[in-house]
Amino acid sequence: MSEPTKDQKIWQVVAAIPPGCVVSYGQVAAMAGLGRQARYIGRALGKLPAGHDIPWFRVIRSNGQIAFPQGSDAYETQVGRLKSEGVEVTNGRVQMRQFQWQP
DNA sequence: TTGGTGACTAATC
DNA sequence: GGATTAGCCACCA
């Protein structure tokens, strides 16, 4: 493993998100060097291995909404974890506390 | 190779 | 503020 795959790069970026902060898929894509490939982020998160330490719940849409339909399992999990970190979530909307990415 | 697909985004109504 | 449309681009069968 000399060259990390894009998926791993994404996971690394997501793992670098500090607690209490959230970022949009587009932001993660830019951080990982994927440009506008925001859709790939969701796919990479869906390929997360078991036992990971990736706070995927800190990744939301650009408009500050959860990427899942309200009432779904993943949705409630994400909201629960965000609230646990001090992030306010109301009506499927997240209080956008984006952080400055330091390359 | 081709075509279908998506945890997206921005613009428009 | 919510719903719809079109654009985008890498991955997978």
TrEMBL record:
Source superkingdom: Bacteria
Lineage, uppermost ranks: Bacteria, Pseudomonadati, Pseudomonadota, Gammaproteobacteria, Pseudomonadales
SUPFAM superfamilies, per database record: Methylated DNA-protein cysteine methyltransferase, C-terminal domain
CDD domains: ATase
Alphabetized Pfam families for the sequence: DNA_binding_1
Organism (species): Marinobacter subterrani
One GO MF term attached to the UniProt entry: catalytic activity
Biological process according to GO: DNA repair
UniProt KW keywords: DNA damage
Domain Methylated-DNA-[protein]-cysteine S-methyltransferase DNA binding, residue spans: 7-87
Gene3D superfamilies in the cross-refs: Winged helix-like DNA-binding domain superfamily/Winged helix DNA-binding domain (1.10.10.10)
Protein name in UniProt: Alkylated DNA nucleotide flippase Atl1
The keyword DNA damage is assigned to this record: yes
InterPro entries: ATL_DNA_repair (IPR052520), MethylDNA_cys_MeTrfase_DNA-bd (IPR014048), MethylDNA_cys_MeTrfase_DNAb (IPR036217), WH-like_DNA-bd_sf (IPR036388)
